[in-house]
Amino acid sequence: MAKLIVDVVVGGGISGLCSAKLLTEYGLDVLVLEARDRVGGRTQTIEDPAFKYIDLGGSYVGPDQHRILHVAEELGVETYPVQCKGKTIDHLYAKAHEHDGSFSTWNPLAIIDYLNVAYTLDKMCDTIPLEQPWEAPQAIEWDHMTAEEFFNKVCWTSYCKKRMVQNTHHAMAVELWEISLLHYLWYRKSGNGVLKHSSADDAEEEKQFVGGAQQISNKLKKRLGDKVIVNSPVLQVNQEKDHVIVTCKNRNSYQSKYVISAIPQALLNKVSFVPPLSPLKNQLIQRFPMGSSIKTFAFYETAFWKSKGLNGVILSDFGPIHTSMDDTKPGANLPVIMGIITGDQARYFCNKTQKERKQAVCEQHAKVFGCKEALNPVHYVDKDWLGDEYSGGCYVGIMPCGVMTKYGKALRCPIGRLHFAGTETATISAGYMDGAVRAGERAAREILSKLRKIAEEDVRDVKDVLTPRHVTMAQRCLPTVPAFLVGSAAVFVLGGYLSFSES
C-alpha cells in the first residue's frame, strides 16, 4: 500500500534537495528518494587525514553563481579562493608553453583570431533567448551544424582552433563534433559568455567550498531529516487523475499530488512512466547523452611545480588530462594536482585500469612540468563518471545536431503532475551547481503555483537574470584576421608609395 505524502522528489542531488527545501518552507510534506547510498548526485567528497578532503565531482563556483553561494551561506558552508599564483602551462602541439597571461603565443594573428572568434561567439549568444533557444533567428541553421564545423570555418589559425577545443573540453567534457552549434552557444550564454572566461580572474573556478561541495547536500539532508530516503532507485511513476504513485526497486511505494524528477534527462529511460511520457519528451531523453569525464588526483610529497614558478594549471589538447589545477586544501599535508580527462580521452581511459590511468596521468605530469618527481605520487585517486550508474557521465547532458530545435520544448515542460529539475533544465548556469539550485527552485515554484501558494507570474524568479557582460572598446573594434592582413598590407603599400614619392 502506498504511503500518503504531498510531493515526491526523485533524486537527492543539489537540485532535488533544493526543490524539497523550498517546498518544505511553504509547509508542504515532501519526500526525497535517492538511488545511491548517499546524497549529492554529481558532487561527491571523500576525506582522508593525509589530504583532508577532495571533491570527486563538482567543486568550483564563480562570482556570478549567486544561488549556490546563497544556499551555502545559509547552510554555514564557507568558501576559499582558488590559488592561481604562478605561470600556467598550455600543452599545445605536444609541447609545454609557460605563460602568465591569457595567451601562450606571441603571434599577434593568433591572438587577434582567438579574441575575434570569442567576441563573435558572444554576439551570436546575444541573439539566443535563454528560455526558448529554438526561437533564435538562426536557430535551425546553427542546430544543423556541429560546433566543430563552425570553428573549422571561422578559425584562421590552428592556435585559435586548439584553444576552442580546450575550452570545450574544459567547460562541457565533450568533443566539438558531439554538440550542435546552437546548444554550444546556448550553454555558453547560460554561463555568461566566452570572453568572460578568457580571464583567470573572472572564471568559473574562482572559489571552492571549505570541507567540500557535497557538504551542501549533506546539510540539506540533515535539515530535511527523515524526509530523505537513500538506497531507493525509482522504477515506476504512475500518474492517476488526482495523484501520482511512485514505486521503488525495494517495492516501497509512495502516493503524492506531484512529482519532481531531478535526475539527468538520459536516466529517465530507466524509469517506467504510466501513462508514457509525451512523444517529444520520450524522444528527447533518447538524444540527450551525458558528457564524458574522469577526475584524477595525484598526491606528492612536495609541490614541486611551485618551486618552478608554476601554478599547477595545465590546459592541454594532447591528453590524457585536458585540464589540471593545484587542488591542495588549506592546511593539508599532501600537495595534489587535480586533473580532468574528457571526451574521447575519457572514453579511451575508462576501459583502462586505475593503475594504467595513474601511469598515463603521471607521465603527462612529468613531461609537462619537466620534473621526474611527478612520476612517483605518494597517493592516487580517480573517479570514472562514465561508469557511474546514477549519473551516466559528467559534467552535463549535451544535445547533438537537431535536438534542441526539434525536441527542446519538452526539456522543462511539465507533463501532468510530473515536473522536471536538474541542472540541465536551468536557463542560467546550466551544468553547474548554481544551475542545479535554480532549476530545483523553479520546479518547486511550478508546484507552488499549482497549489496557489504563489502567483503564476512568480514561477520565474525575477532575480534569475544574467549579470551584464562588460565589453571593451578594443573588443568591439577588433578586426578579423583577413581584415588585419588587408589593412596591414594597405599600410605597407601606402608607406612604400609615400617613401617612393618623397624620393
Automatic annotation (TrEMBL):
List residues binding FAD: 15, 34-35, 234, 424
Q: Name one GO molecular function term.
A: primary methylamine oxidase activity
Note the superkingdom of the native organism: Eukaryota
Key word tRNA processing present in the record? no
Domain annotation Amine oxidase: ranges: 14-448
Cite the entry's keywords alphabetically: FAD, Flavoprotein, Membrane, Oxidoreductase, Transmembrane, Transmembrane helix
Gene Ontology, cellular component aspect = mitochondrial outer membrane
Q: Where in the cell is it found?
A: Mitochondrion outer membrane
Task: Report how it sits in the membrane.
Answer: Single-pass type IV membrane protein
Instruction: Report the principal subcellular site.
Output: mitochondrion
EC number annotated for this UniProt entry: 1.4.3.-
Name this protein carries in UniProt: Amine oxidase
Q: Which organism is it from?
A: Actinia tenebrosa (Australian red waratah sea anemone)
Give the gene name.
LOC116290482
